């Protein structure tokens, strides 16, 4: 797919470019996006993360041409999503969050219709491959109404890819789907990414984002608060996590830095001295601990740290963002 991607003056275009994008609702009273600027390079596997209401869907809807920005510009491989909508839309394969489908057609028919929509003819070989890769071959002639929720989601993925778009956008594709579909989906999307397709993923499954995405942006209340390579985000934050089980109440002094799930407690520590300090506090409070282990902080820890605003915000200038893509 790379050969489709145009270059100007030797510098390759970003796959997606968000420039100072804002979005207001309720007659301008509520600002859901506030000056969002970043580029996604061609061939990247990029993750967009943020808590509920951060503005992810608003940003994706503007990218898809389903909503209009209140300010700023968005382009896909150089095509402006408003002024050059048809060209921008052709470059995009969007897997929506909601299960929208036409109940009157079979799976194969719906893929043929979608091919026709993008003006792609003689597409049977690719449709067969999509059906095979997404485990839908035996459902090709089934009516959309007869499919389970997970199967419908597979069809949505196939529909998004039917015109072989260079840029693939997945908005919460694994919400509520079983392990088998996740694995099938990620193997296929990772293959397409290796072949040169750019992938933009929004997800609440942080372990998926950590495993798949080379770079991540985190949105909080409509602003970018972190934008970096996944490995650098993990390196730059709390280095270690103490994990243990306890039935006792934690000493109050540890509560602000603890993540408690039932009996399991996780406390972050930046270095060995901090680990020792936490253990000493637990001992002094006679708090019995079981199954103590010290592990590396994961993306969930980093995400929580950034969202709780304990760490310095990492909003970057456009120049820094460009640098990140080029590096
Ligand atoms: N049509 C609308 N009218 C008014 N407010 C809206 C509208 N759409 C979204 N919002 C508000 O804008 C903010 C951002 O919403 P958005 O759906 O973009 O967030 P999100 O990051 O996708 O959240 P989630 O993870 O829950 O899907 C929220 O506060 C939401 O309530």
UniProtKB/TrEMBL annotation:
Alphabetized UniProt keyword annotations: ATP-binding, Cell membrane, Membrane, Nucleotide-binding, Transport
Domain called ABC transporter: residue spans: 16-246
InterPro entries per the UniProt record, alphabetical: AAA+_ATPase, ABC_transporter-like_ATP-bd, ABC_transporter-like_CS, ABC_transporter_ATP-binding, P-loop_NTPase
UniProt-recorded Gene Ontology molecular function terms: ATP binding; ATP hydrolysis activity
Matches recorded under Gene3D superfamilies: P-loop containing nucleotide triphosphate hydrolases
A Pfam family of this chain: ABC_tran
Signal peptide bounds: none
SMART domains with a match to the protein in the record: AAA
ATP-binding listed as a keyword: yes
Annotated protein name in UniProt: ABC-2 type transport system ATP-binding protein
Taxonomic source organism: Roseateles oligotrophus
